[in-house]
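Chapter review. Work through the record for Tripeptidyl-peptidase sed3 before attempting the end-of-chapter questions.
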Amino acid sequence: MLTRVALLACLAAVCAAKPLVARSMQLHEVRDEVPDGFVHSGAAPQDTVLNLRLALVQSDTAGLQKALMDVSTPSSALYGQHLTKEEVEKFVAPSADSVAAVNAWFAENGITAKTVSPAGDWLSFSIPVSQANDLLDADFSVFTHQETGQTSIRTLAYSIPADLKEHVDLVHPTITFPNPFARLPAMVAPPKAKPAVNVTSDAVPASCSSTITPACLQALYGIPTTPATVSSNQLAVSGFIEQFANQADLRTFLSTLRPDLPATTTFTLQTLDGGQNPQAASEAGVEANLDIQYTIGVATKVPTTFISVGENFHDGALEGFLDIINFLLGETAPPQVLTTSYGQNENTISRALANNLCNAYAQLGARGTSILFASGDGGVAGSQSSRCTTFLPTFPSGCPFMTSVGATTGVPETSASFSSGGFSNFFAQPSYQASAVSTFLTALGNTNSGKFNRSGRAFPDIAAQGDNVEIFVGGESGLVGGTSCSSPIFASVISLLNDELAAVGKPPLGFLNPFLYSTGAAALNDITTGSNPGCNTNGFPARAGWDPDRCRLMMGKVEHHAK
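Structure tokens for Tripeptidyl-peptidase sed3:
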């Protein structure tokens, strides 16, 4: 027989693992199948600790989105009147009832949570798999990605107490899977003959047809070489997956391709999640060097910051995407432009999580930040999947509150075949692009019928050179390609425009899309050749007007329309 002490100990253990009051549970999120490429490898070890996050329902997301559109639409009386940190947080902060209800649930289960977002809408907590399965009525298991061997612990469904339905947005990471196709641009040797580095007319050097440099971009897009003058106008470059920007390579790049700039021109560093930026030549990153060299090397004298996001991220499968936005939302003066050259397939992310992160972009956009992302490099196959039967949109390009940047190639320019573009399966088509996209779909007819969501948010929104771009890594020059080239190039143009606006006392452009699809459209040069094949199809053809290969930009014209 058990002794009284032993019996009490057993009862205490049971009470610690189970709530004293049983709650009626309701299915909250479910994934119909394991994402392509992953296989179920068995139950997760019961004692493995999971670092989870819970998103509380925000108080007024509709109000936030309306405010974003009001300050971002040129025809609006509120255009350019961006919100303050406090004004944005008022839209996002959860109700006191939501906070109290969720904290009571946690207390019942012996869980201590902490707030991890400026507005208090995200909570983090850590519990073992055994408790997570009980708490969420889930089945956390090990899933292995067959190509990479990468393993992760996820569940295909989870529930929450029915009385918390109006208070809890989502729990993460649960049904969101990691991105197995985080690929970086590869370098190839450039032609031996260097292109001219000084261009004084609109003529584009012949060498630009094989090698893109800052001088080529200045000639193609009318980008000025005159230095920016407003120090408060900031351009931020995000860095992930231990990609480091090398100062020595930047000096070599500037000395070779921007000799009119002091070779000492550099960037500042911000870090989060254990990020760093070591300077050994062997640790120089192709992506990080590309992004820094084509912001500092194109956005002449615009103050530039490299934000290194480490591997100790708190947002699970998002791998720092949400952390960096919450980091910037916590600043009193976030940068006016943020460029990111990473992404993943939309179908790896839960709809609730994608929507929550998209609303985080809306928060930053409402404060006057232009958020730019590379659209991806797999054509209509998203992040380069060869197994798709229907088109795979990328994320976050499907989010309507950021600007997706595709790629062009050659001189004269044509759409780059690798440039991802298409239609979101998560997000509806926003009103600012309805007319342009309708014209494209009418012309497209039944081509690719059934392979994409005709009513989804269409992307990319803009395109720029993204092939045969010269950079320096480890002291050596090379050529790279991908939409990861295009995003920092376009970000540089927007930063220069913001400098011009700030110099005459005007606000930054902020969220760009309502401008790009209205008054700014007259500044775009239409790309009408090429396509973006994938999924055993030719993808979408480039046509007159908007298409999933998109237009490219003329800086001089945009400057006129921005003012």
